[in-house]
């Protein structure tokens, strides 16, 4: 059996977890909106046509913020099409996904849904085919109380209270040649500068997110971030990162090492933000919004064969297996380990489209990736301890050296809880892990959850929704200040400790 040591010190902290790192994303894409969160006529729909079963699962996940309405979709979107009387809303082509958008669901319906989901809205504006004028108008519609054209229009549409949206994405993946209205870094930097300036003139309480690179493989990665920030540093609060991973070569150790890639990606973007900060002698720090991350590859082939110009097709419907859940668990650990700089992150996406939640006419069910997200979101709140992992390593094809063990400890001082999240990536051997926790006198283990399966490719389905699920772990001990646990081969684990009541 391999052995590993996890080292923490109560005084060595990464930083406080911003709960928004447990955000998610709903795009007008496939069946995310239609049949996902909204399905009037369904036996699960409430009086607004919102699926109650989905809302219940989203509330379980405790998703504090949801990005909307895209994604690639937003770069051609006219938000005005999706407000007002439903029978007057136009159906439009969506060139991004080559489908028909009926506009039956729009921003007001989404704001209602988010309220019921107990989430904040992170709204994206169209900087592809539109620009600052459109951003100004949608902000007025959403955040102004009354007495102006767009605020009164919202009231006329039946929404008396402003939506008061605080977080705004200025465009989506504008570096990507696939993006409608794709721009060079200089063009986008100027567009974001003027859009951010205008939006903050309208409402100084909002925060803005500028587009970083669409992924680490973009040829312009690095120079894009630097140029954009050099132009619009003052108008921006966060820089976005997007990254999806896939086990295309069926090389699981390499796939599981993707969290190393994610870790390096985050560190690189932090360096670029700080480089521009130093060059421009700024006091303000730009933090990161990792607003699209997940596994995405299972549905790629099927999507190529889908008919075009239909409504809400089964697009991007990845069915996640057990090893995907292991990687999602590792990616969450990576986000936590960067809690000092990653303040927002969105699991892309939330329902039906590369999602933890799937729906059909008979109900909603949980994919494998639902579980690491659920537990990390619920118990990964507090302060991240600087967690040193001393574990055996292996050589991965894509990322070089990777640790067999990913781990992080989060200390919730308010609740007097300490939680360890860990992934043993070793496919052959269990691992004995120890951690000196003498500083946490009076703590005891209150919960140990494990996600594992004998088959790395096992999936949950509508018919068999609990094939891959979390089960209580055994054998973990916290004695005389020393935590010891045997982490089974290829497993995700959560060990939650709490202080004894005095
Ligand atoms: O989440 C699916 C798509 O991935 C989004 O629309 C786009 O931003 C990214 O390329």
TrEMBL record:
- Into which EC class is this enzyme placed? hydrolase
Catalyzed reactions per annotation: Hydrolysis of terminal non-reducing alpha-L-arabinofuranoside residues in alpha-L-arabinosides
Residue ranges constituting the Alpha-L-arabinofuranosidase C-terminal domain according to the UniProt record = 291-491
Mind listing the UniProt keywords for this protein, alphabetically?
Carbohydrate metabolism, Glycosidase, Hydrolase
The record's annotation in InterPro entries points to: Alpha-L-AF_C, ASD1_cat, GH, Glyco_hydro_b
Q: Which family does it belong to?
A: Belongs to the glycosyl hydrolase 51 family.
Protein source organism:
Candidatus Pullilachnospira stercoravium
How is this protein organized at the quaternary level?
Homohexamer; trimer of dimers.
- Write down the Pfam families for this protein, in alphabetical order: Alpha-L-AF_C, ASD1_dom
Q: Per the UniProt record, which EC number(s) apply here?
A: 3.2.1.55
Q: Name one GO biological process term.
A: L-arabinose metabolic process
Q: Name one GO molecular function term.
A: alpha-L-arabinofuranosidase activity
Question: What is the protein's name according to its record?
Answer: non-reducing end alpha-L-arabinofuranosidase
Q: Does the keyword Secreted apply?
A: no
Q: In which pathway does it act?
A: Glycan metabolism
